[in-house]
Amino acid sequence: MSFNSLHFLIFFALVLALYWVIPNRFRWILLLAASYYFYMSWNAVLVFLIAGTTLVSYGASIAIEKTKRVSIKKLLLALTLIVCLGTLVFFKYFNFLLKSAIDFLNLFSLNIDSFALDLLLPVGISFYTFQTLSYVIDVYRGDFKAEKHLGYYALYVSYFPQLVAGPIERPGDLLPQLRGEHKFNTDDLSAGFRIMLTGFFRKCVVADFCGIYVNNVYNNIDGANSLAVLIASALFCVQMYCDFAGYSEIALGAARMMGVRLTENFDRPYLAQSFTGFFRRWHITLTRWFTYYLYIPLGGNRKGTVRKLLNIFIVFALCGLWHGANWTYALWGIYVAVIMCLENVLKKPMSRLCGKLRIDTDNAAVVLLRRCFTFLLCIFGAVLFRSRSVVEAGSLYAKLFADMGFGEAYYSAAFQSLKMNLVSAVQIILSIAAMCLIYNFAKYKPDSSPLPLAVKEASAYSLRVCTYVYLILLIALCWITLLGMGDVSSFVYFQF
Questions:
Q1: Sign of the alpha-carbon dihedral angle for 332, 335, 337, 340
Q2: Distance, CA of 194 to CA of 441 (rounded, Å)
Q3: How confident is the model at residue 357 (pLDDT cuts 50, 70, 90)?
Q4: Does the active-site annotation cover 149?
Q5: Which terminus of the chain has a smaller tally of CB atoms within 10 A, N or C?
Q6: Cβ-contact 169, 155 below 8 angstroms
Q7: Which of 124, 104, 139, 99 shows the shortest CA–CA distance to 47?
Q8: Is 388 a residue whose pLDDT tops 50?
Q9: Catalytic residue, candidates 7, 149, 182, 323
């Protein structure tokens, strides 16, 4: 059941209505049943996997809290990590590791036949595994009291708005809200509805239409030139952002309509002026998870520059592999890690150089230049991220840097490869521009202009209603159009 489906809209409307009708003490039962139904709609058998992970982590955490012996606590934590991470590694990486091992051995002329297990990747396993681990580790550290109520804990692991693709919540942020008493609030309903609308706009209007042109190039590399690859990769950056941020906003909006506030996962990442800044704004909860549970335990920045750079490299290399069982993701993680390390090394020398040259780093032109350079780095990385194999990525990079040209024929060939005409190009540009404009719509705050309060409220209300109607009609039109074209797609991050 994807968010951009009629099935989900009916499901959510029913759950929301029941949620506000039944007494607060029974709501956890409704949400847990709804969450398991939501997950089972993907594959009913896999519900036993999330239930097993829930039971193991629940029992281990209670035992960790009760025992006084540090050695027993460590043993229980280790066993939980082995079970949870072992499940993730088996289903997500087993075939990849097996194939890589066989390919390596065949380099020595051993001629081992490749084979693979018929494994189905459980939807959202990377997300709920990390959320489960954050709970167990926080209990082990003493940062959070073990949840005694199995129902509430199971709901924390499986809460349907953020189950499949995050945000990855820490127990202290989500569990108290699930346990809390929520009263019907029109402000939360209105805010949640706005946030959901912006999420649907990003997905149905921007991401899916960008994806059409991205696929046209990446599915026919031989017919593409450097300009086509560059434009397609830039559109893929937009597609990934709108796809994932769109999912996150729908999740945040759905939860908000039930009185629960999830953590914001994106903060306009393409306004960042460095790769470091970009990853502080992109998939914020994943970066936070790696910071709390890997970077800091490895020593963070407390053990010298060399150790800090090594820790950064380890974190982002693993972050790359977290995205998928493919060498392209591993190389993308290494690419990001190298750039992050370089930025850390060059930060102070560049600051001193700018001071000597009297370059104002806050100047609008300098800020724009830094943002463009950061986006260009994202484009180069997107080639790896979108490619299906290292060989394909190599072909794309070869075209990107070696198949350059100028003239009408060159530009015409690029747009033919994209299968894009002037009208569709204008549509993409306008949709991206609209995406930027609606950012403040989701975060609406009352106007501070010196008009009478009644006039401001009436004007703001009329504007919001008009915006609601316009966005709903536009989203519906684009959704129906994509259905007719056969291009409605599930959220990209579902595969992670």
A1: negative
A2: 7
A3: confident
A4: no
A5: N
A6: no
A7: 124
A8: yes
A9: 323
**Which residues does 381 contact at the CB level (< 8 Å), separation at least 6?**
332, 335, 336
HSE, CB side, 13 Å, CA atoms: give it for residue 71: 0
Instruction: List the structure tokens of 371.
Output: 């943002």
Q: Hunting for tokens 């847990």 — which residue is that?
A: 32
**Quick one: pLDDT at residue 451?**
36
Closest to 136 in 3D by CA, of 126, 127, 146: 146
Q: Please report, as a single letter, which amino acid is at residue 301.
A: N
Tokens of 102: 């066989």
Whole-angstrom Cα distance, residue 447 to residue 456?
A: 7
- For residue 457, name the pLDDT band (cuts at 50, 70, 90): very low
Q: Phi/psi of residue 341, each to 5°?
A: -65, -40
Cα dihedral sign, 75-80-81-83: positive
Cα dihedral across residues 7, 8, 9, 13: positive or negative: positive
Q: HSE on the CB side for 447, CA within 13 Å?
A: 15
Euclidean distance between the first and final Cα of the chain, in Å? Answer: 16
Q: Which of 255-264, 292-301, 444-453 shows the lowest mean pLDDT across its residues?
A: 444-453
Per DSSP, 46 falls in state G
- pLDDT at position 5, please? 80
Token reading at 13: 């409307």
